Every structure is written in C-alpha cells, then in structure tokens.
Amino acid sequence: MITVRFAPSPTGYMHIGNLRTALLNYLFALGMKKQTGEEFSFLLRMDDTDRERSKPEYEQAVYEDMRWLGIPWDRLEHQSKRLARYNEVLENLKQRGLVYACYETAEELEYKRRRQRARGLPPVYDRAGMKLTEEDKAKLEAEGRRPHYRFKLEHKETSWDDLVRGHCSYNGAHLSDPIIVREDGTFPYMLPSVIDDMDFGITHIIRGEDHVTNTAVQIQMFEVLGGKIPVFGHPPLLTGREGKLSKRLGSLSSRELREEGIEPMTIASLLARLGTSDPVVPCQTWEELAGHFDLTRFGRAQPHFDTEDLFKLNPRIVRSIPLDKVNARLKERGEKEITADFWTAVSPNIDKIADIAQWEQICFSDEIFALSEEDRTFCRQTLEFLPAGEFDQTTFGIWTGIVKEKTGRKGKDLFHPIRLALTGREQGPELKMLLPVLGRAKTVLRLQG
Ligand code: GLU
C-alpha cells in the first residue's frame, strides 16, 4: 500500500509552495491508485518540535487549508507528542556509537566555516567533537557548556533514484554530520522525520528540492535504523516575483488566495502542470486531474510562479463548476441557491463565486435603470414587438428580429439600449440567455422605465 505524507511546520501560514507539496503528494497517490487500483493512505504530520515558533493558530490554518483544498488525510500525527520515541531511538544510536557529543557554540561553528571557506575548503564539520575525551567533556561542562549531538555519517556514496531528478548520489565525506539534538535537548527536523517515516510506513516522499541533501543524510539514518527506504521525488522549488518563495514573505498565503476568490481546483490544475512542459488543463475534480498526473514529467528547472496565472485560470474553472456544486458553495457562504437558467446565463461573465451576487442583484432586484431620453423612447417602442408566451432562449432573437425590421436599427444601435435598460451595464451575459431569467414582467418594467 502506498503511504504518502505532508509534513508542514506550523510556524506560519501556508504559502503556495507548501500547498504545492501537499497537492503533489495527493495527486501522486491518487494517480497511482488510478493506475494500479490500490488504495493509499495520506498522513498529515505536524512538524511541531519547535515549541517557540509552532503556534496553534498556524496548525488550525493548515487544517483549514487542507479542507479547503479538498485533500483529506487518513491519519494525523504530531511530532511534539513523539518525543519519548525519538529519545528511545537516540539512546539506541548513542549506545551503538553512531552519535557523538559536541560543545561548540554557534559562533564557534561559524568561525570554523569561515576559515574553511577562506582556505578554499567546503564548510564541512571537522568532527572535533569525536576527538574529545571524557576529561575534555567534563571540563567543557564545568565551563557551563551543554552538549549537542551529531549523527555520524558514513563516508561512503549514498544514492537513490529520484522520481524527478533521476539517479542522485552524495558522498558522506562531503556532508557535515547533522546535529540531531540541540543543546536544549530539542530535536531538529532531521532524525524525527526519519523515525516517523519509518514508524508510519511512508512509501513515497515528495518534497521540494531544498531537501535533496537531507535525503542523502536521511537514507543513512534509515539504513542504521533498519527502516525501509522510501522512494523520493524532489521537484524544483517555485520561484516567484520575489525570488524564492518563502513563508515569511507571506504575500501568497493561501488565505489571501482564498479571499481573492481563487478556487482550490485552480491552484491544483495550475500546480499539477507548472514545471512540466505539458499544457495546463482546467479540471473540476482531483480524480480528473490525477488521471493526467505524472511526477516524472517535472523538469529540473525552477518553474516561475506568478499569482496572475491563477487569476487568469480561475474564470475558466469557475465557469464550468456544475450547478449543484455552485449551489453548495453559495449555501456555505450563506447565500441563496440559483437556478440552472441563471447559471447558464451568467456563468460566462463570472471570474469568481463572489461575482454571482452582483448578477443576482442585477437580475432579481426591482431596480429600473436610468436611460437617456433617446434610448428610453426606443426601448418603449420595442415593447409592442415582444413575442407572446413564456420567454425562452429563442425569444430574444425573434423579438429583436422584428424590432430590426420595424425600426431599421441594427447592431449596437439596436442591442446597446436594450442591454442598458435590462441590466444597467455596458457589458454582461448574452441577452438571449438573460431574457428567460428576467421574465416578462421585469423585462416590460425595465423597458418601460
Ligand atoms: N517540516 C519539513 C518542511 O516543512 C518537512 C520536510 C519533509 O517533507 O521531509 O520542510
């Protein structure tokens, strides 16, 4: 069974890059299910070991965003609740001599790195901690220092076949032994993530390429812990107008996108393709989108993400939302349901769900729109040619055909005053579709003025 996970740190509101990681994992799993018929499981993992920066409101926002996107999770875990397990693994690694204590301060480490760079060397940790005797350590602790711990990497090639990047290989000798416990006893991301992926049976990890070197380190951790190594896929990060997208920029938080009326399927349809050379296909459902999804189609170049692209795609998505879904959405918003006729008429003029209200107001209010004297006279003249019977989509054509014949008006001269009288707007839905929505009584009242 395929098990994927999305592991946000609830230290800020999610931006488009985080949403992308969530949706790529979901699409990947759904796509595999389509191909193989096999069920999958989606784990939502809160990487909340940083007690200072993790906030309940950000965690709530993650749930909200996921629900909004329509990505359900089968299991929820919190790293903050698994510290006992992490400590147990840490003890095991210590006993096996795979972890060593270090005492450098952040400044001292920075100084070492600077000196290495100045000498043209890569800034790899020199393993000074490993050479400390018990006596040295006692002395350092007497000075008031507390140890942090590093995981001892094997100096060997570690490789994997990445779903996006193909064959990847890193030599442990070129990497710093990662710090796995901080001075204050807290765990940075690296080791807990591996323990969780192992314990929760994660089979596939799709995450941004900023984690590629972590993968080399983490594979070594899987190896010493005897875990099954998942399949990895690292799509390139998105770049935005501001350069690298980051949570701190906050300019593209999912909440703002939501408030702007961007549909989840707009985001999903765009991001499923951004970074591949395949065209964006506006899809209404995840299933439909997953049918076309292929992670191996992602290239190595960083795709450029522009919020404008979402705004351009959104109308195409919104306009093809089926009526029952539109009504469900309106209900959620506390708005009245709409009819099929109304939706067919106005949907081509809608960029977001919130625009519906404006056309409802236009179609169903008792407002009579102001016209110039000339236009009013003309509209009143057209009244006598209104066909009898209930209005349908043929009414407008029949009516204006007669008006044209009788008055000699055509084109804009004919249609513009009628549009102004009926909608008060220069532009809008096709009048032939609007007429049945307005009905005879309102049409007459508005033409009459
Ligand atoms: N919490 C990590 C992040 O947000 C998760 C990385 C991973 O997917 O392993 O970057």
- Average pLDDT, all residues: 95
Could you say which structural class the secondary elements and strand pairing correspond to? mainly alpha
Please estimate the helix content.
40-55%
Oligomer: single chain
| Ligand roster | glutamic acid
* N-end to C-end Cα span: 68 Å
User: Rough shape?
Assistant: elongated
Total strands: 12
Annotated CATH architecture of the domain at 366-448: Orthogonal Bundle
What strand order characterises the main sheet? Answer: 1-2-3
**Element string (H = helix, E = strand):** EHEHEHEHHEEEEHEHEEEHHHHHHHHHHH
Regarding CATH, which class of the domain at 366-448? Mainly Alpha
How much beta, percentage-wise?
A: 5-15%
Poorly predicted sequence stretches spanning 5 or more consecutive residues: 246-250
What is the CATH fold-level name of the domain at 366-448?
A: Arc Repressor Mutant, subunit A
Largest sheet: 3 strands, parallel
Provide structural commentary.
It is a single chain. This protein has 449 residues and is mostly helical. The chain has a domain at 366-448: Arc Repressor Mutant, subunit A (Orthogonal Bundle), CATH 1.10.10. The chain is 47% helix and 11% strand. Strand 2, helix 2 and strand 3 (75-78) form a beta-alpha-beta unit. Helix 9 packs across helix 11. The relative contact order is 0.10. Residues 246-250 have low confidence and may be disordered. The structure holds glutamic acid. Glutamic acid binds at residues 7-9, 47, 189, 193, 207, 211.
